């Protein structure tokens, strides 16, 4: 295979092979933009290297050829003593992983070529030595694994309180000596002077950084597959640290927070790459660059315009200015907040850049879910202690903690925490995931904290410069002498940037209010407008219907407001809780048919009243009512407690308690989930299902237009269903009500014999909670807490199969049941009502499997509508 591509050979669609950075560098090169020449080593080479633990055969020769070509083109050789070519070695995976992997700049410098570089720079010794010490520092840290603190401390000591701009050539030369000493100390070897060796070592290190712990954590969080590998970009160096006419910056073509068009970015004069993100000096805005270097600014604006038109989307870029000449170092379609995603999609439609289908494809259910989160009450009278930048929206309340470790620790105990630090690094990732929000005192909207938090949809306020954060003392001070120590509750508003002392009350989001308010839109709120337009298109596009899992009037009403087209699962056992439990007890304890009849007669009017309310709310839309499902013991007292009570009472124990204890003992099961529940219960307790069906029929008769469907749970054999169906049909006929009778498919045998079951069932609803439980043999109530984190870590699966439908296993059962069920009964109605009905990936699967509807909890309905629309594109 071909392992190396020149920038002129690739394009933006080759991300699998060249990574995002490499593919886009190639795209920009081919657009004629000023990109420093270079080449990309493919992610395939990385995969081979990680597998075989040695560079794949032929790779070194191929790299040498491309380097040769690059050298001829540039007219200088890598590290050439009198006139060196220097290169950067940068990682670049298919999916961006900000700051997760390694980059080494200035490869090619050594004790000789540093003089050549100074000569190139017109005798600028300071620049050359600064570049050299940066190489040793970055190389030492990322390639040789030396603690970066050692280098930082040496630099701080040298500076002695001075700004880094005040250091001169001699200072940096001294620093190079110190740094070389650190390297020799830490590795037992001298810093490698051979430029080709430097490049080879850096390339291997970038490959290996794919498996660095922080990268592994990030991929798991972002659901990025673990086996992609990273490409490596070797790029001829351009220098932003040449002098004040040079610099480096990052920019967005639109505001990634709001989506508004304009000029957004940061620029740092006389600095190199990582300095902007690391926040070593305060950056200036792009607007200020206009004043400093108008031609460069104008060219940058032109390029940004060109990129946005070419990619038809918000782009973010990294650039460097070398003595007044602009160079593009990176571009990509930029991350954005959920709100900006909706706004930008609709803005681009209005600008004629994309069509509405494309707009729909560019937003996700996960983003919509984010927008439905509550915000802080506007008029809340809380003390704002300072303001930072609104880096990632949302409202976070929690105890202040000052290290990632503490964040993880407290969150594991169920506490809400806000991670506070001067700035974050990729090592803080686990803490950021654990925290409700992140607050930093340094860095701008492009700092690590901001970029990562936005990517995760986590609330973040960054650059709150008035705060003095001391991680060592676990506290910060705010203006006015306010001291916040670990454990004190703070609230941060990622939409406004405000930081509050104490807990601020939160209110619903405008998007939530829009859904709650039955879809009325005023034209004042741009975000709500955008959501409305995209949702309308999703509704018009989707083939899947969306129903709700609801078992009371309130949830039914909400489901309708959110756009549900029916109820896909009404769990009747929820109607047996609370005060009614006693009635169920009576039923279970009944020893004669009279006692049983009496108990059932007491339950029936209550059931009927519940169904009536739901039919009224749903106003003619279909309501699928599932007959009672869970094991009976859930309705009975705890065995141990009751035994103790009876034993303590001795002879004085009440007759009723004795009987109850005997029943509880009789009904005790080792595996209740595999025991007497669902249809089994209906077949074992005479009259129970009949009472429920009669209650449904009579309620349906009483409500004009009511549309009931009767669903039998936990069926594994058509014979079970036939018994229940016969009785149910008789009752429906007696009352004079028509209703479909169907079954859940939630036992693997039901899926495997779906062809037979469809003889008796008029519809199937996939109960993928139980179907997953029984297909994997995972107790659904136990395993997630017990060992799923280990399984996720080991990569057994990338996401819990209870959350996202396991296509390879459970999915095959679903497909089989769909096919064989429809063969028996072509008009068989098919739906899903397990938790997966509200999960984006699973909804796409349901669309592909040809289901008629998905059913999910009321709050997930907008997400399901959106994803069903996207699935149909
Ligand atoms: C299911 O098993 O997927 C289902 C919807 O039923 P329940 O969750 O009530 O067992
Ligand atoms: Mg079930």
Instruction: Please give the CATH class of the largest domain.
Output: Alpha Beta
Q: How many domains make up the 3D coordinates?
A: 5
Helix-residue proportion: 40-55%
- CATH fourth-tier homologous superfamily of the largest domain: Phosphoenolpyruvate-binding domains
Question: How many DSSP H or I helices?
Answer: 35
Bound molecules: phosphoenolpyruvate, magnesium ion
The helix-and-strand class reads alpha/beta
Percent of residues in beta strands?
Answer: 15-25%
CATH topology of the largest domain: TIM Barrel
Task: Identify the quaternary structure here.
Answer: single chain
Q: Major beta sheet, specifics?
A: 8 strands, mixed
Taking strands numbered 1, 2, ... along the chain, how are they ordered across the largest sheet? Answer: 12-22-21-14-15-16-17-13
Question: How large is the radius of gyration?
Answer: 33 Å
Q: Architecture of the largest domain in CATH?
A: Alpha-Beta Barrel
Low-pLDDT parts are none
Through-space gap between termini? 35 Å
Domain PEP-utilising enzyme mobile: 415-497
Keywords: ATP-binding, Kinase, Magnesium, Metal-binding, Nucleotide-binding, Pyruvate, Transferase
Protein name: Pyruvate, phosphate dikinase
Cofactor: Mg(2+)
Task: List the defining traits of the structure above.
single chain; 873 residues; alpha/beta; Dna Ligase, domain 1; D-amino Acid Aminotransferase, Chain A, domain 1; 5 domains; eight-stranded mixed β-sheet; eight-stranded parallel barrel; 35 helices; 31 strands; 46% helix; 18% strand; binds phosphoenolpyruvate; binds magnesium ion; EC 2.7.9.1; pyruvate, phosphate dikinase activity; kinase
């Amino acid at each position: 295979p071909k392992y190396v591509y020149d920038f002129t050979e690739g394009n933006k669609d080759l991300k699998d092979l060249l990574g995002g950075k490499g593919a886009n560098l190639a795209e920009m090169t081919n657009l004629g933009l000023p990109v420093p020449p270079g080449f990309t080593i493919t992610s395939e080479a990385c995969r081979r290297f990680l597998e075989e633990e040695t560079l794949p055969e032929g790779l070194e020769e191929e790299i040498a050829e491309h380097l040769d070509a690059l050298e001829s083109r540039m007219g200088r050789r890598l590290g050439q003593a009198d006139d060196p070519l220097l290169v950067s070695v940068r990682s670049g995976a298919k999916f961006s992983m900000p700051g997760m992997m390694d980059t080494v700049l200035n490869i090619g410098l050594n004790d000789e070529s540093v003089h050549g570089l100074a000569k190139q720079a017109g005798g600028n010794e300071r620049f050359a030595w600064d570049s050299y010490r940066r190489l040793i520092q970055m190389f030492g840290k990322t390639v040789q694994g030396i603690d970066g603190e050692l280098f930082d401390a040496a630099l701080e000591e040298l500076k002695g309180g001075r700004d880094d701009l005040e250091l001169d050539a001699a200072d940096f030369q001294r620093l190079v000596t110190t740094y070389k000493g650190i390297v020799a100390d830490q590795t037992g070897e001298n810093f490698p002077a051979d430029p080709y060796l430097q490049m080879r070592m850096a390339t291997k290190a970038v490959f290996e950084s794919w498996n660095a712990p922080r990268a592994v954590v990030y991929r798991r969080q972002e659901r990025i597959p673990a086996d992609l590998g990273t490409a490596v970009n070797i790029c001829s160096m351009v220098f932003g640290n040449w002098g004040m006419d040079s610099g480096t910056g990052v920019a967005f073509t639109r505001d990634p927070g709001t989506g508004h068009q304009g000029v957004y970015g940061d620029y740092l004069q006389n600095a190199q790459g990582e300095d902007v993100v690391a926040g070593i000096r305060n950056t200036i805005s792009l607007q200020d660059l206009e004043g400093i270097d108008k031609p460069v600014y104008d060219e940058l604006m032109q390029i940004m315009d060109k990129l946005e038109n070419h990619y038809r989307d918000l782009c973010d870029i990294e650039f460097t200015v070398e003595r007044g000449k602009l160079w593009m170092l990176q571009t990509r379609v930029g991350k954005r907040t959920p709100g900006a995603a909706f706004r930008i999609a609709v803005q681009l439609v209005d600008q004629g850049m994309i069509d509405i289908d494309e707009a729909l494809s560019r937003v996700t259910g996960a983003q919509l879910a984010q927008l439905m989160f509550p915000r802080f009450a506007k008029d809340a009278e809380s003390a704002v202690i300072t303001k930072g930048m609104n880096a990632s929206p949302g409202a976070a309340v929690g105890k202040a903690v000052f290290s990632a470790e503490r964040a993880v620790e407290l969150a594991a105990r169920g506490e809400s925490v806000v991670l506070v630090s001067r700035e974050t690094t990729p090592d803080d990732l686990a803490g950021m995931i654990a925290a409700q929000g992140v607050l930093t005192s340094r860095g701008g909207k492009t700092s690590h904290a901001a970029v990562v938090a936005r990517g995760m949809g986590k609330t973040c306020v960054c650059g709150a410069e008035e705060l003095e954060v001391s991680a060592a003392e676990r506290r910060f001070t705010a203006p006015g002498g306010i001291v916040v120590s670990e454990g004190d509750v703070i609230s941060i508003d990622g939409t406004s940037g405000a930081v509050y002392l104490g807990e601020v009350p939160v209110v619903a989001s405008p998007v939530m209010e829009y859904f709650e308010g039955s879809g009325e839109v005023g034209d004042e709120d741009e975000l709500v407008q955008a959501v409305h337009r995209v949702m309308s298109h999703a509704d018009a596009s989707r083939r899947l219907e969306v129903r709700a899992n609801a078992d009371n009037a309130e949830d039914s009403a909400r489901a309708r407001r959110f756009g549900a087209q029916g109820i896909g699962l009404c769990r009747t056992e929820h109607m047996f809780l609370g005060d009614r439990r006693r009635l169920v007890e009576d039923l279970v304890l009944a020893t004669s048919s009279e006692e049983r009849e009496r108990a059932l007669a007491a339950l029936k009017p209550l059931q009927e009243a519940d169904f009536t309310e739901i039919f009224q709310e749903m106003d003619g839309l279909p309501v699928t009512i599932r007959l009672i499902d869970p094991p009976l013991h859930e309705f009975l007292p705890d065995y141990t407690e009751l035994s103790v009570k009876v034993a303590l009472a001795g002879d004085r124990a009440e007759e009723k308690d004795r009987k109850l204890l005997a029943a509880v003992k009789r009904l005790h099961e080792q595996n209740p989930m595999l025991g007497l529940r669902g249809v089994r219960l209906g077949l074992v307790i005479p009259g129970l299902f009949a009472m429920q069906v009669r209650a449904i029929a009579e309620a349906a008769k009483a409500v004009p237009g009511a549309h009931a469907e009767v669903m039998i749970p936990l069926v594994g054999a058509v014979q079970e269903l036939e018994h229940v169906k016969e009785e149910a049909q008789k009752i429906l006929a007696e009352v004079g009500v028509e209703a479909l009778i169907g079954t859940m498919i939630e036992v693997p045998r039901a899926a495997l014999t779906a062809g037979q079951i469809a003889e008796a069932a008029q519809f199937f609803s996939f109960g993928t909670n139980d179907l997953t439980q029984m297909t994997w043999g995972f107790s659904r109530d136990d395993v997630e807490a017990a060992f799923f984190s280990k399984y996720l870590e080991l990569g057994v699966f990338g996401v819990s199969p209870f959350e996202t439908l396991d296509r390879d296993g459970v999915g095959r059962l679903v497909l089989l049941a769909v096919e064989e069920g429809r063969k028996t009964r072509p008009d068989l109605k098919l739906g899903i009502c397990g938790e997966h009905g509200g999960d984006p990936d699973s909804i796409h699967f349901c669309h592909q499997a040809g289901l008629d509807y998905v059913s999910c909890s009321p709050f997930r309905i907008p997400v399901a509508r959106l994803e069903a629309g996207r699935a149909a594109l």
